[in-house]
Amino acid sequence: MRRHIVPFIVRHEPNGRALSHLKSGIGAVIGIAGVGALSSLTGLPLLIAPLGATVVLLFGQPASPLAQPINIFGGYLLATIIGVAVALAFPGLLWVAAVAVGAAIAGMLVLRVTHPPAGAIPLVALASPASSASLFVTILISCVSLVALALVHHRLPPRVQYPRLLPQN
Questions:
Q1: What is the pLDDT of residues 26-46, one digit of tens each?
Q2: How many domains would you assign to the chain?
Q3: Torsion angle in degrees (nearest 10) through CA of 149, 157, 19, 9
Q4: Which of 44, 56, 66 is nearest to 115 (CA)?
Q5: How many Å apart are CA 105 and CA 36, to the nearest integer?
Q6: Does any domain span residue 168?
Q7: What are the distances in angstroms from CA 102 to CA 124, 140, 141, 152, 159?
């Protein structure tokens, strides 16, 4: 019985330094607060739930392929295109959300721009009363803001390489 449970409870993440974890948490606070401040200044609904998961990757796992700028921008762009297209083609039909999420995931995998938080964007597009154009603007401003902050944040001690460099052949 024990050998069946162990794979579910063993930690797969390596131990880290407390200072690095604290820096990650502070980066996330500043990132979300910054986007919230921009939201207040612009009147745009910039604080959307998927950004909470994006900051986990950006500040907590910056070496992950899923946290790289191309994955963030590409994943969100593709998911927004799919979500808006489905919302325009099938207005008010929330059952198509499953198809839109599946299409966004498949598209991200095919294009190698997987960013898991972006998988929620078709749900946002289908459930939001906001216009399609404003969702594109919301995503773009939010992503640019968070990635720019991450670029600065990871250059502060303890320094972390972000974005990840390509391996040398």
A1: 999 999 999 999 999 999 889
A2: 1
A3: 60
A4: 66
A5: 27
A6: no
A7: 14, 22, 25, 34, 37
Q: Which domain holds residue 126?
A: 20-153
In this predicted model, what pLDDT tens digit does every residue of 42-77 receive, in sequence order? Answer: 998 899 999 999 999 999 999 999 999 999 999 999
C-alpha neighbours within 13 Å on the C-beta side of residue 151: 7
Of 150, 143, 148, 139, residue with least CA distance to 60: 150
Mean pLDDT of 114-139: 89
Q: Which one-letter amino acid corresponds to residue 137? A: V
Q: 48: how many CB neighbours lie within 10 A of its CB?
A: 20
User: Is 92 inside a domain boundary?
Assistant: yes
User: Hey, which bits of the chain come out as E strands?
Assistant: none
Structure tokens given for 105: 């995931």
Q: Is the peptide bond between 91 and the residue preceding it cis, with omega within 30 degrees of 0?
A: no
In a domain, 158, yes or no: no
Domain membership of residue 113 (yes or no) is yes
Global pTM value? 0.91
Copy the structure tokens of residue 57. Answer: 């990757």
Q: Give 137-157 pLDDT, tens digit per residue.
A: 999 999 999 999 999 999 999
Entry field: residues in the chain: 169
Name the band, by pLDDT with cuts 50, 70 and 90, for residue 8.
confident
